[in-house]
């Protein structure tokens, strides 16, 4: 599936299924909830992009840093295997989710609320009751060509994923890019409002991307796809060789 890379960081990827020291730590998950109203579901690509930005907003929020109220949970989550779960909500479900501590990020048609990490078995009841399935979304029109002057999260063209799974993977890709950036580059991206695109390249381009030295997400294989599958290449302009 075009998953070959020479990047030694991949051997200790926080998204990979190979057992490493981070697996011995207590495990947490970053919850994301996408609003999907029956009468006006969001476009798939916009939902993916909004989820990726939501992860970046959470990572950079002052409450997630230093002595902030979410900082301990964020550190515990990032010290363990990095997990994200996307659930869907509408109507009263969405209003209950909005009442919980978190951040809502809005795209062109999508709304995604991201919450501080929680233990795998410690979800708030108003989030735990939400469905994971049912996040199959479509793009009414093909996405325009990506602007390469901004970050692009390239999705594996050979791996099929539900919209919810793809949203989590896009969030992984954004997080890998964030980790690789300098403080100055992080600040510039944040101050610009985290511009990014999510696109699916042609198979030949995908194979080139996975060997380019850019950060690559390898999924742990908990749901939908095989362990170790390459799902996203995080293509930030300052990370290009």
Automatic annotation (TrEMBL):
Record's protein name: peptidyl-tRNA hydrolase
TM region(s), chain numbering: none
Keywords on record: Hydrolase
EC number: 3.1.1.29
Signal peptide stretch: none
UniProt key word Hydrolase: yes
One MF annotation (Gene Ontology) recorded for this entry: peptidyl-tRNA hydrolase activity
Enzyme class: hydrolase
Reaction it catalyzes: an N-acyl-L-alpha-aminoacyl-tRNA + H2O = an N-acyl-L-amino acid + a tRNA + H(+)
